[in-house]
């Protein structure tokens, strides 16, 4: 496992390959390739951070929460907020850092949150990473990005891990093996607790029932397999679906596109 410190306005880890950054006053953007098993240890920034995995996945630990994120979500991390990032597979991390004075208006930006990864906002982040030379263009991009964030709804469909250690153990195992078909009673029995105890923990800590959470985890895993080029029918079985058609329907309901279209979009974006 590779561990690296990641702090400061434009600090980049020494191991990052294909890294690029662009700075305009108290505003910057950076991109870097991350390897499987890389971890940014607990740290904070003096600036607000908007993080996005254009490919691959990230586990973000912030404010007592654990979120598993892919390209469908941005993570907003306010200045001064301690956080840790881990990467379970190769991918590309895109980040924008800005002075808190430049953040969108409203108290909600003082708390970490996940937002839908708007296509235009994602394109702006990538554009800023290319080292836009013109100051007026950088300012215009920054202003548009802030405006888009201001209108962006908070997303609650990320894969969050329960705080309860017993429920978290189940969740971690399912993320590693999403095809595991054991029901809640079987999981609880193996831990020597009641199914109701585990059920309450999932709802209290993730906002979802165990069944709902498992569907999210399976589709989250499926997105990664599709991005790595695996065939739809193979992915369906790998994440626990006996029927390819039911997998396609569930995936489309979750991501808004079919698995094939999703995989094509990852390839087309250069991920």
From TrEMBL:
- Keyword Cytoplasm listed? The answer is no
Q: Which InterPro entries match?
A: AraC-bd (IPR003313), Homeodomain-like_sf (IPR009057), HTH_AraC (IPR018060), RmlC-like_jellyroll (IPR014710), RmlC_Cupin_sf (IPR011051), Tscrpt_reg_AraC-type_HTH (IPR020449)
Describe the location of the HTH araC/xylS-type domain by residue ranges: 168-265
Question: Which key words tag this protein in UniProt?
Answer: DNA-binding, Transcription, Transcription regulation
Look up the domain of life of the source. Bacteria
Keyword check for Signal: no
What name does the UniProt record give this protein? AraC family transcriptional regulator
């Amino acid at each position: 496992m590779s561990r690296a410190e990641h702090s400061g306005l434009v600090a980049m880890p020494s191991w990052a390959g294909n890294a690029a950054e662009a700075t305009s006053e108290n505003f910057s953007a950076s991109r870097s390739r991350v390897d499987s098993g890389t971890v940014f240890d607990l740290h904070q920034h003096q600036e607000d951070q908007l993080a996005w995995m254009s490919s691959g996945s990230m586990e973000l630990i912030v404010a007592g929460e654990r979120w598993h994120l892919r390209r469908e979500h941005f993570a907003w991390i306010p200045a001064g907020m301690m956080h840790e990032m881990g990467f379970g597979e190769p991918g590309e991390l895109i980040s924008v850092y800005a002075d808190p004075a430049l953040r969108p208006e409203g108290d909600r930006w003082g708390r970490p949150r996940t937002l839908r990864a708007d296509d235009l906002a994602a394109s702006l982040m990538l554009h800023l990473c290319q080292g836009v030379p013109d100051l007026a263009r950088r300012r215009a991009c920054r202003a548009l990005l802030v405006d888009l964030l201001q209108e962006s709804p908070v997303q609650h469909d990320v894969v969050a891990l329960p705080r309860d250690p017993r429920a978290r153990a189940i969740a971690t195992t399912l993320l590693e093996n999403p095809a595991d078909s054991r029901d809640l009673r079987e999981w609880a029995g193996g831990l020597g607790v009641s199914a109701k105890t585990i059920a309450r923990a999932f709802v209290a800590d993730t906002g979802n029932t165990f069944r709902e959470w498992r569907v999210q985890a399976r589709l989250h895993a499926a997105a990664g397999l599709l991005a790595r080029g695996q065939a739809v029918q193979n992915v369906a079985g790998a994440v626990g679906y006996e029927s390819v058609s039911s997998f396609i329907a569930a995936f489309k309901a979750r991501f808004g596109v079919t698995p094939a279209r999703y995989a094509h979009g990852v390839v087309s974006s250069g991920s």
